[in-house]
Design the sequence.
């Protein structure tokens, strides 16, 4: 009988795409993949280190695995496993901890342990490289709900933002070869997936490390142009790109592209130049305004999402209000708000001007309220327009949801025939839950 494996992924879209690659390596070893709530022989937890919460959740997930099968083998991989392997290894029930480069060889480590039962129980085994050694690239993609896929194109980061552990967890910036990215995109297209979301740690840096060194043959713009020519992919979405790396040529190309959608997620982190300098971001607020204006000029209907951190050390009430007013006046569509949390081995952790937790939470709440207002205003601006909707695969309390190309979330009574299809619709009204209702423009399925 085939052994069974189950996966749990914490964190970002990049982690999800890497979990899929790791899962495929288990399938090659004749493992059957089951849901994490089911009984399995091996449980793999892909960890995240970006927020405090992800650290705490790890122990709960290990307990969940042990409850499903007390005899199972539990492996921890990913960013938290690279940063604090001993801490994870000390959690009761964990058998194996693998760092940034080792996670892709998990089946080798497991086979070794399972073939030597005397070594496989008791103290957890740790295999975690020095992060300087994480200099090779492993390509991956994940298929989420069979309507879209997350395609990893880049890994690691050369930026040294003072709050961030990602360079410590993932190593230097490096990229997949253009040829390999295009091959993965074709494989996804062959599975009738309608949308690809490009992911990476710093995707605007694409090209670096394409050949295992810093020589550049291709740029992010080259990648965008090449993907736009792939047959069978109806939508391409750029997940998140640094403002200083989002060039005019890319914005102008997306504006006239048939495949790339008018949706940009551009991290800001603070609207105060003082705080941006403390964070060691590579731009100031005026460059951010310029990027937003450039997008809106080329694509007035574009959706722009923003990452922002509140409660960074040294952020005074004045700095926070600067950020609040900056965002309030900017033509953006929604916010992802992160409450600053201290991280070991970062410069920010030793900075003065620590903001009390209750103040951080209050600021976070204010910006979440602003985000709701911004999203509502953006949705209202889209009423009466004709858009294309890709419908999702889940029945959510009798409704089917979908997203327009510019990321307006719509709903309609559940109809399984709509799953994974593209339709032209007219957006008509905003429902009480904040989602948008529509009417079909024609009965024709676009794809």
Sequence:
């Amino acid at each position: 009988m085939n052994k069974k494996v189950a996966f749990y992924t914490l964190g970002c879209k990049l982690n999800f795409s890497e979990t899929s690659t790791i899962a495929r390596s288990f399938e090659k070893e004749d493992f059957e993949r089951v849901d994490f709530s089911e009984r399995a022989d091996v449980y793999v937890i892909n960890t995240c280190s970006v927020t405090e919460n992800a650290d705490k959740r790890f122990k709960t997930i290990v307990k969940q695995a042990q409850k499903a099968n007390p005899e199972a083998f539990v492996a921890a991989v990913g960013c938290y496993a690279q940063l604090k392997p001993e801490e994870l290894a000390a959690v009761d029930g964990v058998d194996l901890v693998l760092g940034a480069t080792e996670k892709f060889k998990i089946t080798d480590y497991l086979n070794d342990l399972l073939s030597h039962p005397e070594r496989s129980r008791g103290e957890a085994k740790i295999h975690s490289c020095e992060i300087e050694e994480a200099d090779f690239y492993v390509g991956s993609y994940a298929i989420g709900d069979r309507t879209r896929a997350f395609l990893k194109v880049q890994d690691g980061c050369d930026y040294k933002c003072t709050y961030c552990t990602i360079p410590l967890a993932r190593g230097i910036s490096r990229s997949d070869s253009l040829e390999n990215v295009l091959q993965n995109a074709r494989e996804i297209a062959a599975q009738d997936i309608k949308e690809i979301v490009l992911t990476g740690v710093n995707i605007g840096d694409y090209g670096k490390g394409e050949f295992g060194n810093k020589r550049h043959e291709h740029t992010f713009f080259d990648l965008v142009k090449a993907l736009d020519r792939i047959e069978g992919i109806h939508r391409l979405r750029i997940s998140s790109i640094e403002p200083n790396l989002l060039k005019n040529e890319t914005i102008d190309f997306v504006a006239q592209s048939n495949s790339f959608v008018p949706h940009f997620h551009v991290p800001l982190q603070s609207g105060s130049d003082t705080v941006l300098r403390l964070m060691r971001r590579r731009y100031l607020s005026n460059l951010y305004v310029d990027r937003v204006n450039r997008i809106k000029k080329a694509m007035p209907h574009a959706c722009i999402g923003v990452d922002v951190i509140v409660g960074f050390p040294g952020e005074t009430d004045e700095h926070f209000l600067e950020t609040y007013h900056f965002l309030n006046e900017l033509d953006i569509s929604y916010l992802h708000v992160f409450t600053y949390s201290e991280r070991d081995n970062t410069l920010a952790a030793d900075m003065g001007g620590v903001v009390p937790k209750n103040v951080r939470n209050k600021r976070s709440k204010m910006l979440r309220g602003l985000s709701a207002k911004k999203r509502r205003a953006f949705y209202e601006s889209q009423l009466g327009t004709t858009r294309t909707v890709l419908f999702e695969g889940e029945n959510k309390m009798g409704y089917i949801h979908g997203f327009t190309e510019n990321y307006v979330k719509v709903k309609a009574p559940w109809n399984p025939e709509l799953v994974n299809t593209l339709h032209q619709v007219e957006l008509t009204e905003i429902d009480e839950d904040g989602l948008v209702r529509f009417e079909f423009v024609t009965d024709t399925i676009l794809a």
Summary: Residues 140 and 230 are 18 Å apart (CA to CA). The longest strand covers residues 436-445. The two ends are 40 Å apart (CA to CA). Residues 357-382 form the longest helix (26 residues).
